[in-house]
């Protein structure tokens, strides 16, 4: 009986994380360069179920079978498909055909983003909306006179670590794109598929409801076991 509560608690935790991820994707539908993320889960390994009710003295192991108690989050996948390009006609907006812009993060680490919604600082250097310097091919701040943006790709973009606000870092050595396709006056829109996210939200909501019913039934069974059977 207590195992049922543990299983349900674990399932509620998984559903909450899935719902948080869906909410994050939906909240960034209008964020340029945003890449959606999907979580996937798997069942835990089966465990043997047995008792000692075998034999003449009921003291021998009796194998009943196996049982899967719950699920777990197995990981996530980043949607690296390019979003639609929207013309803005602003000279400080840029979109990429492939790869990521390199930017200088506040901690000194190099970050990567597909959000080309840049502005110019008082030194005519391109910076992000958060004020991070956009780097050129020599890892120096890109300037209005000679932007020459540093654009990179990764062998496995699934290993990118999200730092929030469309920024990523990676332990992998990136490959520099020598002649990147850069579209000035355009921004890449988020690649979030709203219809898919809505379906995922409905599915998660229904799973919440189903688990709540199981929780209610389990709680009622436990109540009867404690209050009613305890009288005998």
TrEMBL record:
- The Flagellar hook protein FlgE/F/G-like D1 domain covers 97-143
Q: Does the keyword S-adenosyl-L-methionine apply?
A: no
Keywords in UniProt for this one? Answer: Bacterial flagellum, Cell projection, Cilium, Flagellum
What are the subcellular locations of this protein? Bacterial flagellum basal body
Q: Which Pfam families match?
A: Flg_bbr_C, LlgE_F_G_D1
| Domain Flagellar basal-body/hook protein C-terminal intervals | 184-227
NCBIfam families found in the cross-reference section = FlgEFG_subfam (TIGR03506)
Family, per entry: Belongs to the flagella basal body rod proteins family.
**Full protein name:** Flagellar basal-body rod protein FlgB
* Origin species: Candidatus Enterococcus lowellii
């Amino acid at each position: 009986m207590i195992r049922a509560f543990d299983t349900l608690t674990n399932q509620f935790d998984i559903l909450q994380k899935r719902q948080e991820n869906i909410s994050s994707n939906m909240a960034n539908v209008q964020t340029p360069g945003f890449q959606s993320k999907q979580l996937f889960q798997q069942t835990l390994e089966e465990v043997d179920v047995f008792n000692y009710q075998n034999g003449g003295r009921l003291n021998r192991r009796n194998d009943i079978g196996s049982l899967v108690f719950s699920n777990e989050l197995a990981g996530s996948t980043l949607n690296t498909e390019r979003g639609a390009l929207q013309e803005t006609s602003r000279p400080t907006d840029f979109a990429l055909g492939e790869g990521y812009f390199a930017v200088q993060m506040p901690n000194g680490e190099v970050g990567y983003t597909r959000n080309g919604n840049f502005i110019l600082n008082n030194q005519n250097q391109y910076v992000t909306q958060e004020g991070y310097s956009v780097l050129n091919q020599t890892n120096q701040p890109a300037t209005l006179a000679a932007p020459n943006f540093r654009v990179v790709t990764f062998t496995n973009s699934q290993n990118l670590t999200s730092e929030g606000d469309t920024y990523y870092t990676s332990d992998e050595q990136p490959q520099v794109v020598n002649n990147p396709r850069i579209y000035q006056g355009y921004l890449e829109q988020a690649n979030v598929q709203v219809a898919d996210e809505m379906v995922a939200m409905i599915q998660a909501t229904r799973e919440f409801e189903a688990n709540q019913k199981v929780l209610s039934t389990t709680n009622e069974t436990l109540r009867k076991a404690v209050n009613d059977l305890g009288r005998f």
